[in-house]
Sequence to fold (242 residues):
Amino acid sequence: MIFRQLCTSRGGHLSYLLGDPVTRETIIIDPMPAHVDTFEAFIAERGLNLRYILQTHHEPAHIIAAIVLQEHSSAQIVAHESVTDEHIDLRLRHGDVLYFGEEKLRVLHTPGQSPCAVTYWWEDRLFTGKTLLATGTAPCTDQSELQTLYHSITNRLLSFPGETLIYPGLESKGRRLTSIEELRRKDHWLNNQRGKRAFLRSCALLLPEKVPAEMASKNDANEAGTQEDEVQRYMPGRNLLT
Fold:
């Protein structure tokens, strides 16, 4: 597998490129405008064929980047079926499978952060967007959706084998990668009413109106970000639980 993780220096937005080394067909997940030049240069250098540009959730910056990437390829812009944006070429629902070359991604509908939130499952990796970060979850914009978010995380994500890797859409406390087992040990949410109540309380504290102003301004500043500061590479055998 050809794999790259890029992170914006502002906001910590994470984007991904996955490619089939045999057919050279490639997908990009959650591109940011700051990543477009890097992705295009990498695709040209490796002789890749961009087939799909995927959204884990609907965000204007992702659409802006996707449109630019689409101008230089025949790629389709892909999102959940509930997204009505006119630029979406292909709409997916839970259980759908996307093929690129000899590789495939499965679609998991994981609403909560937004009704259109999805997770993409490839082999031992889950690309979770804002639904599940390396240290927990992102602030939920609507308290009425906390139960839905809890269900998505516990029933559809934390039920995966412990060795499954989580690649989120946002950097969290400097972390860009975790595993299901690490989250299970850290946050006792799974099939546990006491843990569920603790989860709902902690998420309520993260609602946007309760986020400190200085944190909100940092996250909102230059949403498109700047050129990535680092490319992360998955290293087999790395101990994620230290």
